[in-house]
Amino acid sequence: MQKRSNFSSKLGFVLAASGSAVGLGNIWRFPYLAAKYGGGTFLLIYLILAVTFGFALMTAEIALGRKTGLSAIGAFKSLDKRFGFLGVLASIVPIIIFPYYSVIGGWVIKYFAVFISGGSAASAGDTYFSDFIGGTFEPLGWFFLFMALTAIIVLFGVEKGIEKVSKVMMPILVVLTVIISIYGLTLDGAMEGLVYYIQPHMSDVSAKTILAAMGQLFYSMSLAMGIMVTYGSYMKKDNNLESSVRQIEMFDTGIAFLAGLMIIPAVFAFSGGDRSALGAGPGLMFITLPKVFASMKFGGAIGTIFFLLVFFAALTSAISLMETIVSIFRDKFHWGRRNACLFVAVLALILGAPSSLGFGPLSFISWMGMSVLDIMDFVSNSVLMPIVALGTCIFVGFIIRPKTISDEVKETDGKFKAEKLFSVMIKWVAPIFLVLILASSVASGLGWFSI
Ligand code: PHE
């Protein structure tokens, strides 16, 4: 049995977990979903889910890890043999996410390269992004590059270095995001966009919006895929679990909010309030921001720094994804680190290639209007993660009982302020809600009705 190393301090734990949590999900995914699903409505639903649902699930996952000292597969199994499958299911999620995550990481490197070589003006062109992803095999090269960088770091295990780097990078990212959003808000027509972003309209609330917000919550906070269980297994008993969860949540949600503030009002300004521009989806960050930069003084330099920071945020998340997958294979097959890394990298290259080419050479593959990348995203976020989350709720609520988790949370100072909320959420609200949402998404997937 390997000795588990621990995070040295609570801050260390919170930062490491935030490094995994804060990534493309916050800067790339959140803004395009919020823009698409009604702005303020999406934001409000997301915030409500984060402080109730997200809080309960993250607390449960970290506590499970800390209590058992094991990562997902082992943690569930060690508490109840029948629930080992849940750990296995959770482990499949990062295997699906990692490849397409790296595809987008590749797009980010491409934009960084374009900006640093003085191409910022060209990248603001209307069809620049679609020409890039839809053209040739070029995206595949950037995807390989991103994957290779991640693999090298995971192989050498220079996590310490990365942790140090992200401690500097993350604050700079925040400052830069604030500057860019303030600038964006001064553009003509941006105020209308700001209103769209923060004002909810109850008529926009639909099962689809809630499902999208929930999938985003899991994705952004690295939940329902065993990652927080693993992180919890490295956490010391004398670090306060409840306040750690609150801090990670605040950090993660804060960055997502800022990213939305940076992108959504600017989309409004540049599209003259055209709602269809808001539904642009995955390309939003790559289409709109270059336009903002192009209209800004020193836009080329600011854009260069921006894409470098996004790259770092993406890299720290990709490392945590790959590290998780590598350790799954190592535990299962007792492989050495090198072999496991190589295997995972090759597997991810094979799995990711169709996502990378799905807008160009493979654009004929589509399902319900979704490209390969969107399908991967949908299957992991809207199908598998809700199932794992539901399983976790049932497991904690009715098998090991919420008290097991509460006791673990109380290890530090005997307190668990949100104990009642936690127990009601995990036993009743979350599972009922998840079943309803899952059922409606399956029903609409089968074409029974549309949501
Ligand atoms: N949470 C990360 C993000 O927001 C994505 C991620 C998911 C990272 C799962 C690790 C594990 O970008």
Summarize the structure.
The protein has helices at residues 10-21, 24-36, 40-68, 72-79, 84-116, 120-123, 128-134, 138-156, 159-185, 190-198, 207-220, 227-233, 241-271, 275-278, 284-294, 299-333, 337-357, 372-399, 401-409, 419-445. By secondary structure, it is mostly helical.
Summarize the structure in words.
This protein has 451 residues and is mainly α. It has one domain: Hydantoin permease (Orthogonal Bundle). Helices cover 77% and strands 0% of the residues. It is built from 20 helices and no strands. Helix 11 packs across helix 18. The model has no long low-confidence stretch (mean pLDDT 88). Phenylalanine binds at residues 20-21, 23-26, 94, 97, 219-220, 222, 225, 227, 317, 320-321.
Which key terms come to mind for this protein?
binds phenylalanine, mainly alpha, 451 residues, Hydantoin permease, 77% helix
Outline the fold blueprint:
Elements: H1 10-21, H2 24-36, H3 40-68, H4 72-79, H5 84-116, H6 120-123, H7 128-134, H8 138-156, H9 159-185, H10 190-198, H11 207-220, H12 227-233, H13 241-271, H14 275-278, H15 284-294, H16 299-333, H17 337-357, H18 372-399, H19 401-409, H20 419-445
The structure holds phenylalanine.
